[in-house]
Write a structure and sequence with these properties.
This protein has 220 residues and is an alpha/beta fold. The protein is built from 9 helices and 8 strands. The strands form 2 sheets. A 5-stranded parallel sheet has the order 2-6-1-7-8. It starts with 5 loop residues before the first strand and ends with a helix.
Length: 220
């Protein structure tokens, strides 16, 4: 590659954006930016400080006084909030739902977008999310939209939970994904949609390796 590019990967929940983005960034020697982790970090702080996610003014004030950093440590992306590593504290259904709610607050999105754009100002990044190629980095060098059938996404989530020793019912997981898809695609602020210049990848019948190879081939 002749320059350090900005690569975006958008798509619905469970499409495999995170794992694919991490692998692609490692292959290229780029930094990986997990925008979802940033929203979960804010969600974690809000719950910790007992701030109602519907209390818009309090949320905005909190975000403006919060420092979020993503640092690469031994090949892993660590999330720092106000100088403290909270990487292992921001997973779980509650924080994911909180992040989804926060993503609908324009002022919260604006503050986090400033941080994301600052991180990508010099290029050499792979960023994944739901509005990265359409809103955050509309002039990205390469844009991909990663998708998969709802049934396949639910099955992936089921397997992921099983590895973690957690239980999950496929029917319930499918229902939750349908609900999340509807919320993401109909939200008033930066809804999930395919950028006109994005390459769409249906990964339903593809392995991670195949998806990564496809992306790298398009880039290189």
């Amino acid at each position: 590659m002749k320059k350090r590019a900005v690569i975006t990967i958008d798509g619905p929940a469970g499409a495999g954006k995170t794992s694919i983005a991490k692998i692609v960034s490692r292959k290229l020697g780029y930094n990986y930016i997990d925008t979802g982790a940033m929203y979960r970090a804010i969600s974690w702080k809000a719950f910790r400080e007992k701030i109602d996610l519907k209390a818009k003014e309090k949320l905005i004030k909190m975000v403006r006084n919060t420092k979020i950093e993503l640092k690469n440590r031994a090949g892993m992306v660590r999330v720092y909030l106000d100088g403290k590593d909270i990487t292992n504290k921001i997973r779980g259904k509650r924080l994911a739902e909180g992040a989804s709610i926060l993503a609908t607050v324009p002022e919260v999105r604006e503050q986090l977008m400033k941080i994301q754009r600052r991180m990508g100002s010099s290029g050499g990044i792979v960023v994944e999310g739901r509005d990265i190629g359409t809103v955050v980095f509309p002039r990205a060098d390469y844009k991909f939209y990663l998708d998969a059938s709802i049934k396949e996404r639910a099955l992936r989530k089921y397997r992921e939970l099983k590895v973690k020793g957690e239980e999950g019912q496929l029917a319930e997981l499918e229902k939750a994904i349908r609900s999340r898809d509807k919320r993401d695609r109909t939200r008033g602020v930066a809804p999930l949609k395919i950028a006109p210049d994005a390459v769409v990848i249906d990964s339903t019948d593809m392995s991670k390796k195949e998806v990564v190879e496809f992306i790298l081939k398009r880039i290189q």
